[in-house]
Amino acid sequence: MATMPVARRSRGRLMSRNTVVGWSFLLPNFIGFGIFTFIPVGLLFYYAFTDWNVFTGAEWSGLDNFSRLLNDSSFWTALRNTFYYSIFHIPLTLGASLALALLLNRKMRGVAFFRTAAFFPYITSIVAIAQVWNMLFSPSFGPINEIIRAFGVDNPPGWTSSANWSMPAVIIVGVWREMGYYMLLILAGLQTVPAQLYEAARVDGANAWWQFRAVTLPGLRPTMFFVTVMLTIGSLKVFDLILVMTDGGPGQSTLVLTQYIYQKGFKEQEFGYASAISIVLFGICLAVTVVQFLVNKRKDA
Amino acid sequence: MTMLETPPAEVPLNLVKPRRPDRTPNRVGQVLRYIALGILISAVLLPFYWMVSSSLKMNNDVFTIPVKWYPDTVVWGNYVDIWQKSEMTTWLRNTLLLSVVVTFLQVLTGSFAAYGFAKVRFPGRDVLFLAYIATIAVPWQSYMIPQFVLFSKLKLTDTFWSIIALQAFSAFGVFLMKQFYETIPDDLIDAARIDGMNEYGIYRRIMLPLSVPALASLTLLTLVNTWNDYLGPLLYLRSPGLRTIQLGLKTFVSTYNAEYALIMTGSVLSVLPIAVIFLLGQRYFVEGIATTGLKG
Question: CA–CA separation, B207 vs B210, rounded Å?
Answer without folding.
Answer: 5
